[in-house]
Amino acid sequence: MASAQRHRHRAGEPRAPFTRPAGFRILIPGYPQWHWDQRERAAVFFGTYSAAMAIGLFGWGSRTGLLMIAVGFLAHVASATDVIRQGAFPGFGRFVPTASASFGLGLGCYMPALALASVLAWPDRPLGSEEDRYAVNRWAFRGSEPRPGDWVWYRLPDARGFGLGRLVAGSGRSVEWSGEVVRVDGEPLDWSPTAPGGPPLDLAMNVPDSQVLVTPMEGLPLATSSSGLMLVPRNGILGRPWARLYPVWTRRLLF
């Protein structure tokens, strides 16, 4: 029996699925079929999945991106369903393999991945910009305080929406701004905020407790003073934006 199977394999005939279990290969679309020497079928499943996911990840934060991720998920379900149908004897019927593959992959792989992505790379736009989208890490400051110069994503004090800017100083810090130099607790920053009317002649203040001082990103008319600075409640800091997603031609990392 074993020699007959080896003979068929040498002759180029695919082995029966039950002689070579798929195992965890089912997590890679097309890999079980490739393992069973079903090369054309494997290429269709893997090619469809990889193309859809590549477009979906590139378009993260848009409807097109979400649609392509859904297409990739369906390609993965189709591959897993094909594995179950080929390896099962007797068969489970038409709908059971599809339902079990959808539930298993969705609950075990895709829902956790999407939940993690929504926390580490949540796509959102600041108030005052209709087209811009940024990826926001909403866990960035859960265990630590933002430092001067960090990009921050914050809730506007009047609850109109969200703002994007850089932290100048945290709660209780003293701030001095004279000419081009900004000092926090006497230490100069290696960057300067952008003031709409130019740098102030002389500015000195202490940041109140439970507040932080930020400067909104240039081009967003959200500052509350001519210096371009605004106070934001510390609990209003929602995360750290780390990449600009849209428009695509402006895509870049934020440092």
Count of spatially separate domains: 2
N-to-C order of helices and strands: HHHHHEEEEEEEEEEEE
The appropriate CATH architecture of the largest domain is Ribbon
**What is the number of E strands?**
12
* Spatial gap, N to C terminus: 64 Å
What is the count of helical runs?
5
* Main sheet specs: 8 strands, antiparallel
Structural class by SSE content = alpha+beta
Helix content: 25-40%
Mean pLDDT: 84
Radius of gyration: 27 Å
Describe this structure in words.
This protein is an alpha+beta fold and 255 residues long. It is built from 5 helices and 12 strands. Mean pLDDT is 84; it is low at 1-7.
Task: Summarize it.
The protein is α+β, with helices and mostly antiparallel strands.
How would the blueprint of this fold be written?
Elements: H1 2-10, H2 31-35, H3 39-58, H4 63-87, H5 95-120, E1 122-124, E2 133-137, E3 151-155, E4 162-169, E5 174-178, E6 181-184, E7 187-188, E8 203-206, E9 211-216, E10 230-233, E11 237-246, E12 252-253
Helix pairs in contact: 3-4, 4-5
